[in-house]
Amino acid sequence: MTVLSLTKSGKQLRPGLSFVFRLLCRLTTVDCTEVQMKKSAPLLMVALLCCAMASAQDNNSEHARKTLEIYTRIIEVETAKNLGNVPEVANYLADELVAAGLPRADVEVLPNGETASLIARYRGDGSSGKAPILFLGHMDVVEARPEDWERPPFKLTKDDNYFYARGSIDNKFGVAQLTSTFIRLKKDGFVPNRDLILVFSGDEESSMVTTRQLAYEREDLAEAAFALNSDAGGGDLNEDGKALVYNIQAAEKTYATWEVTARNPGGHSSRPRPDNAIYDLAAAISKIQAHRFPVRWNPMTRQFFEVTGEQLGGELGDAMLRFAKNPEDTTASDRLAVESSYVGTTRTTCVVTMLRGGHAENALPQSATATVNCRIFVGVPAAEVLATLQQVVGNDAIEFKETATPVESPVSELREEVRAAISEAVQGRYPGVRMIAYMESGGTDGMHFRRAGIPTWAASGIFMNPDEMFAHGLNERVPIKTFYGALDHWSIIIRELADD
Fold first, then answer.
1. Over the Cα atoms of the chain, what is R_g?
2. Which of 69, 226, 436, 492 has the largest count of CB atoms under 10 Å?
3. Are both 62-232+443-498 and 256-402 of the same fold?
């Protein structure tokens, strides 16, 4: 087989050029270990580059077609909660993996009430002696009301720039790309030096019952060295399509929700009382709205703002840099507090998300309830946030009821082998882009795996403008360019982590 050495005149090539050759050889069929670089090296590099570009840009390759086929199929199954459709997706993915060559005994669909999870083990030869790697995703989506959307939410549609559908980002993008990558590797005859395990949950967007089952009840999964999550992380692009930064999720804020209730004897609406459950609740809501939790930071979040600020520039970038230098700079933290994309990285946030109250139009309300959802800065106890909310409301008659036990999870300190593997995938698409670890304001399955003692990092293949991120919102979409650009993302990471 033709092979290429990364040396010239007996000297090691500089790191940047070495990376380019490794990437080009991976994307082509050349084995870069034996052929010596001579005067023809530049010509050979050009030839490899042309070959690699042709491969990377082939949107009609077998892998591209299979990924789009899976993506389209699973998006068109509505997997919102209470519909019972997740098992259909799980079984479909299982059949695809078995058809590609994974033994049926290594592909499990685990029913759990109306939903299900999927575990698929791609067995390695064990030559590395290393524990398995988990690859996480979730098959369910949040609800979408067709009458509110400009396009049908459960049919994959597109224009010149975007794919549209509920789950097009969160998280059927990751599920499709990971599944197709396993299929591709199996068909290519790839034998990893350690086991690789797909772990797809079925209710991440709601109760996370399947997530808990996978993280806490499966001894075989507990043996994993670490997990990589497709449901977060990824690259930020500016409005001109320039890559600003690539984010690796290494921590998540604690998700906590309280139902805040005001009660009253009520009565006839023609005889209003001076006190009123809805008014009392409204006063409590106003106080919660006005409260700003204290600024928090750690080395990871300060580096996040330093790197992002340098890349972003302008007035907002300057605020980030000032915050990174001095988190106690209130002008900087106040500026970031009005940015929905970044406020969560500076502090705990609590927001009212649902309301209900009263029982008849001609009766005084006997109760009124607001749902308050909090995303708590890593390391801050949920009990501390509850005590703050109660103090802010200042009304002992207002009840606070926790809807579920908050899951507090640690930071997963980024390992060099993981950072290097992700870098290989990312730098091939956007050479020179900075990579940083960050804390997620939202919640993913990763919180449970971290809590279970499995270090977890999220590293999505998505690159897009954060202002175009409409996961959970109307007309969710993902750039078509990033869909095809991500086709090699997981293959490169896997080969870096599990190939001799």
1. 25
2. 492
3. no
Closest Cα partner for 365 from 257, 479, 239, 278? Answer: 278
User: Closest by alpha carbon to 78, among 236, 205, 252, 210?
Assistant: 205
Determine the pLDDT at residue 371: 98
pLDDT digits (tens, 9 = 90+) for 21-32: 555 555 444 445
401 is written with which tokens?
């009821």
Residues with Cβ within 8 Å of residue 436, at least 6 apart in sequence: 245, 246, 247, 248, 303, 304, 307, 308
Kindly report the pTM of this predicted structure: 0.83
The predicted-structure confidence for 322-375, as pLDDT tens digits, reads as follows: 999 999 999 999 999 999 889 999 999 999 999 999 999 999 999 999 999 999
Tell me which of 3.30.1360.20, 3.40.50.150, 3.30.70.360, 3.40.50.300 is the CATH number of domain 256-402.
3.30.70.360
* Assigned token pair, 165: 């559908």
Euclidean distance between CA atoms 76 and 288, whole angstroms: 39
Name the residue among 412, 410, 434, 427 with its Cα closest to residue 303. 434
What does the block give as tokens for 58?
């082939």
Contact 244, 238 (CB under 8 A): yes
408 pLDDT above the threshold of 80? yes
* Chain-centre distance for alpha carbon 114: 24
Q: Rounded to whole angstroms, how far apart are CA atoms 324 and 313?
A: 14
CA 323 to CA 316: how far, in whole Å? 11
Q: CATH fold of 62-232+443-498, please?
A: Aminopeptidase (3.40.630)
